[in-house]
Amino acid sequence: MSEVAPKTIGNPASWVFQSLRSASHGTADAIDEIRSEDSATPQVRTLDLSDISAALRDGWQDFKAARSDAMFLVFIYPLIGIAMIMSGFHLAVLPLLLPMVMGFAIVGPAAAIGLYEMSRRREAGESASWMSAFAVLRSPAFASILMLAFYLAALFVIWIMVAQAIFAATLGPDAPSSLSSFATDVFTTGPGWTMMIIGTTTGAILAYAALAISIVSFPLLLDRHVGLPVAVATSLEVMRKNRFVCLCWGLLVGAALLIGSVPLFAGLIFVVPLLGHATWHFYRRAVT
């Protein structure tokens, strides 16, 4: 009878060495996945407005199939919105309340990554529960996804800083004395209209930049091992080739998020899953 080798705990030094070696291999794999040796850009289709309606229709089917799981997955977003409203009662933060709400459209593509995974699994005939959405954490592309998410987060921070600067240069720098006086200043004074025009234009430019680099990047990274540069290049090509359709998609997403935010952000429990699932199907229609 063969002897079984005794199990030993090992000394701390060897455990640390093995952990560092494993981490170094994981880091190297992540770097290889980010850059990817395959530099070929996937084929991009020409889209029309019917592709938007079809993506929404397919996204609705995904939402109905995993309604409770998807709603549970995004339940935190209304809580974040309510926290922003509560902070808005502090008059110093009040001018930034609307920019923070609208800025959610910038980071939205990253926030819906779990929903893309659910749609991908359902399309492949696999189980698609809220737990399966966390499989993204084990994806080889997770480092690329995280890096792209950091970029969108940086755009969001820049937008908030710019919004603060625009307020300081027009109606500021002092905080509003009350909500009613702030609303009056915004809609009935020249500086208020200047703030809205400059702020809206700046926000639109940043939102366009976020849309251009992320409209299909996140789903593509989940679906194929193309690397971050190729994913972003493909997203830019989708925007270049289908600018009108992509802008309509972006306006639809922004309007839906705004409508979902009105009733104390409760509507986001329905809007975010629908848009997340639909984004996956928009990607499938845009990239071959």
TrEMBL record:
Keyword Transferase belongs to the record: no
Question: What does the record list as coiled-coil region(s)?
Answer: none
Which keywords accompany this UniProt record?
Membrane, Transmembrane, Transmembrane helix
Q: Where are the transmembrane segments?
A: 70-90, 96-116, 148-172, 192-222
One Pfam family this chain carries? DUF2189
What superkingdom does the record give?
Answer: Bacteria
Q: Does the keyword RNA-binding apply?
A: no
- Which protein, by its recorded name, is this? DUF2189 domain-containing protein
Species of the source = Tritonibacter scottomollicae (Epibacterium scottomollicae)
